[in-house]
Amino acid sequence: MKKLIPTLLILTLLSSVKANANTFETIQLYTQDELNVLIKDNQHLQRVKADECQLLQDIKAHAEKVQEPSYVYLWGDMLAWGVCTERDVELGMHYIKESAQQGLLAAIEQLGRYYNKGILVTQDKDRAVRYFREAALQGHLGAQMNYITLLNQGYGSPYDFEDAYRALYNSVIANPKKKKQANNLLAALGKKMPEFALRNARREYNN
């Protein structure tokens, strides 16, 4: 009987492991479209936490080896804020800037916000203007609003008023609160512009 006890224990443990394996939910790697939506909604770090950091190695591999811009940005943000990995602000900013150089608008806009507020970097309003302008003229709504905010505060150049106005004026904004905020920003900027520039800015984009 004594020899049977270990065997019974092993069988019981194996049965328990099998049962747990059947109930364990495997987290699939995010598709590019899914990740881009998460980034747009600023939910990417929360999603990684909600998935209990199970995709850490996959995310790192996609950033370092595959070098997909959205994953480069995600990995940089994770490093910058210490989400599911040891915090390394310098390396995190390196990846965020790399994804911006790859053309990811969310990364460009975020760099604008960081330099605008002095988050993780030395505050530099002029550099923030440049980042916001780059993302704004490519259609990033948040960048458009931040760009005009800084122009209204006296940063940037009056030569940029027309392009900045045109970009936000032609944006489609479903959220009523943001639409009202955009209208207020445009009204303030419009007062700084000559009438001919305002007319030009209100024309539709040429297709």
Molecular structure report:
- There is one protein chain.
- With 207 residues, this protein is an all-alpha fold.
- Helices cover 68% and strands 0% of the residues.
- The N and C termini lie far apart (85 Å).
Describe the protein's topology:
Elements: H1 4-23, H2 32-40, H3 44-50, H4 56-66, H5 69-81, H6 89-101, H7 105-117, H8 125-136, H9 141-152, H10 161-169, H11 176-190, H12 195-201
Helix pairs in contact: 4-5, 5-6, 6-7, 7-8, 8-9, 9-10, 9-11, 10-11, 10-12
The proportion of residues forming helix, as a percent range, comes to 55-70%
Terminal Cα span:
85 Å
Uncertain stretches of 5 or more adjacent residues: 8-14, 16-24
The main β sheet shows up as: none
What is the global morphology?
elongated
The Cα radius of gyration reads 24 Å
How many domain regions? 2
Summarize the structure.
By secondary structure, the protein is mostly helical. Helix content is 68%, strand content 0%.
Question: What structural keywords apply?
Answer:
68% helix; mainly alpha; 207 residues; 2 domains
